[in-house]
Amino acid sequence: MAARVLVVDDDPMVTRLVRINLELEHFEVEEAWDGKTAMRMMHEDPPDLLVLDIMMPQMDGWEILRMIRSDDDLKELPVVVLTAKVQDEDIARGWRMGADGYIVKPFNPVILGDALRKVLEATAEERRARREEAVERYKDIYLEDMP
Fold it and tell me: Alpha-carbon distance 128 to 108, whole Å?
């Protein structure tokens, strides 16, 4: 059975590009263009993995990630950030907030598919260990607005 992936991005062109590439990699893909819709969809029928943009109006990806990690029903949901935010501070923040992967746009479709498979194959413990390793790599990055 194909893994179900929810792609959350306010740019329909990006969601379409991600959808096409992930479907070619045999993923089942659903889309949400805003945080409120994404949260509703995740509570109604949680996907196997979330691909999350950061820069979105109203509710940005940081807020969505914070809500997921503090929600007992969703806190173990694998989340891969897919964003144009490439600064070390952004990457460090993603890992510290609980991302299981961080991919920058523009992205290589093969790398995206491989990254999603790697995250899906890992146990929750392995994902936590990977996050801790990434946080350690970025430990010297100063994050003024880190929650």
Answer: 25
- Sign (positive or negative) of CA dihedral 72, 64, 76, 146: negative
Angle between helices 61-69 and 35-44 (to 10 degrees): 30
Q: Match domain 4-137 to its CATH number in 3.40.50.2300, 3.20.20.140, 3.40.50.2000, 2.40.110.10.
A: 3.40.50.2300
For the whole model, what pTM was predicted?
Answer: 0.93
For 22-76, write each residue's pLDDT tens digit. 999 999 999 999 999 999 999 999 999 999 999 999 999 999 999 999 999 999 9
